[in-house]
Amino acid sequence: MAQPNVHPIFARESLALLEEGLESLLGRERTEVPGTRRIYVNRNLRMDQIDLVGFDMDHTLAVYSREEIEQLAFDLTVEKLVHSFGYPRALLDIRYDPTFVMRGLVIDKEHGNILKLDRFGYVGRAYHGRRRLPRAERLRLYRESKIDWKASRYAWMDTLFAMPEASIYAEAIEMLEGKYPLSYSDLYDHTRESIDTIHRDGSLKSIIQRDMGRYIERDPGLGPALHKLRSAGKRLFLLTNSLWTYTDAVMRHLLDGVLPEYPSWRNYFDFVVVGAGKPAFFERDDPFLELDAEGNVVGVARTLERGKAYQGGNLAAFERMTGFGGDRVLYVGDHIYGDILSSKKASLWRTCMIVAELEDELEHLDRHLDTLRLLASHERLRARLEDELAHQNARIAELERRMSRGEEEDAEAALQERQRRKRVVEALRRSLHRVAAEIQALSSRVEDSFNPHWGLMFKEGAETSRFGAQVEDYACLYTSRVSNFLFASPMQYFRSPRALMPHELGTDALAPFGSDQRKPGDTLRRAHGP
User: How far apart are CA 216 and CA 205, in angstroms?
Assistant: First the structure.
């Protein structure tokens, strides 16, 4: 068969020469961006076609000192449970353990369990209080019948604000169960209501405002990153659920005085909307209310103007009043449901998710790169052993069928062949057992050293975790912080990797584009720097 003509530029040798030429051309100007500061791509996005870029504030523009803010929310919520809902004062003695909580967990309010799922809904890990459920109990509860994960008995811990409530839930069960009457469902509802109250009544935010530097990090790259987008002709907007007084205080802390071109944080933004009430903002038809400099409502807005602030509103009116809509808008937020999924369902807005924990996970993966490579080699060997074992067992079964029917001319030779293959099967089983044990040890080394309770955030066993799958499915881009846009061109073509199915990954011709080219530090997605 005649071979297709291949232009020389696509030959591997030519590609290598091109890469060498590129290195020579760039020389010292080439800048390597750490994996922790890169922007990762799930869906192609051309920044030259984005006219308007919007930002959430909390955990997006404002990077909170996680342990400080979570400890504060934990303490205030426990006090509410004791003083407002009558829980025993002994609950005041529980302590916050930041290693026991992670985004993407699920609370089963019926059984009082905290779960971690993979992308297919398989429960890989489960805790009741601080006790890890044995495998048999976990399978009995969550594998014997089909589960509707959208049912009201399940509560999803998808935001960083939810971390204290998951910790309180586990610690309270651990302390109170068997000693005091306890309803798992009521405990969750009361904890949820308490943590909502401390956010709503200002008790949490008033403490943060008194010591802003303790609770909110000041990222020196934030102002320059926003300036870079504006200098490229992008218009920017702020869309946050926080109300005006708190928003103004936080934004002044983050941006005032950072760049001489922007004497006030408001100079960075063309439109400012507070009290947006996301995710309802993307579905309702509430009007925009114009605010004065103190945050008081002065009337219903007919237009959205630069230099003014607004409260409430809705998606349709926002697009109509600003003149920007559809896929010309990029919205950056941290909440998989309130910011990312809801905007996706209601609009054509493009999305970028801020995942602050990504920095820790990437650094951890890079530290364990050799172990991950060894793990991948062992997994390939396990697959080969399993295939060969299945093949040998099938040959033995066929040989025994032929012997039982008297179809083998030399019965003694057939018997010897069966014995030989059984010895091969036993050797394969021993090898498989050893490899499986080494895979388990290597996996535990990587996962447990990141988090001894839940493992990696983006993985559950060999599969992508439910949280990782949501990021992959709903966020066009994801990165660890807004200032990472400083390392990418405002006209960047963010291009996702070629999507390959398992049968394509096993094709030699596609191997350069497959798993061998993906680095653990890239979290299996293409990353962009300068």
Answer: 11
How is the chain split into domains, by residue range? 64-201
Region 265-290 average pLDDT: 95
Least Cα distance to 313 among 393, 389, 240, 385 occurs for 240
Backbone φ and ψ for 212, nearest 5 degrees, come out as -60, -40
Mean pLDDT (whole number) for 236-263? 96
pLDDT(343) > 50? yes
Quote the CA–CA distance of 458 and 159 in Å, as a whole number: 14
Residues in contact with 496: Cβ distance below 8 Å, sequence separation at least 6, in sequence order: 41, 42, 43, 44, 525, 526
Q: Could you read off the pLDDT of 48-87 as tens digits, one per residue?
A: 999 999 999 999 999 999 999 999 999 999 999 999 999 9
* Among the listed residues 353, 349, 230, 224, the one whose alpha carbon sits nearest the alpha carbon of residue 282: 349
As a whole number of angstroms, the distance between CA 54 and CA 309 comes to 15
- CA dist 388 and 266 (Å) reads 66
Q: In this model, does residue 518 exceed pLDDT 50?
A: no
Check if the beta carbon of residue 317 is closer than 8 Å to that of residue 287. Answer: yes
Q: Are 330 and 349 in contact (CB under 8 A)?
A: yes
Question: Which pTM value belongs to this model?
Answer: 0.87
Question: What whole-number distance in Å separates Cα of residue 258 and Cα of residue 224?
Answer: 8
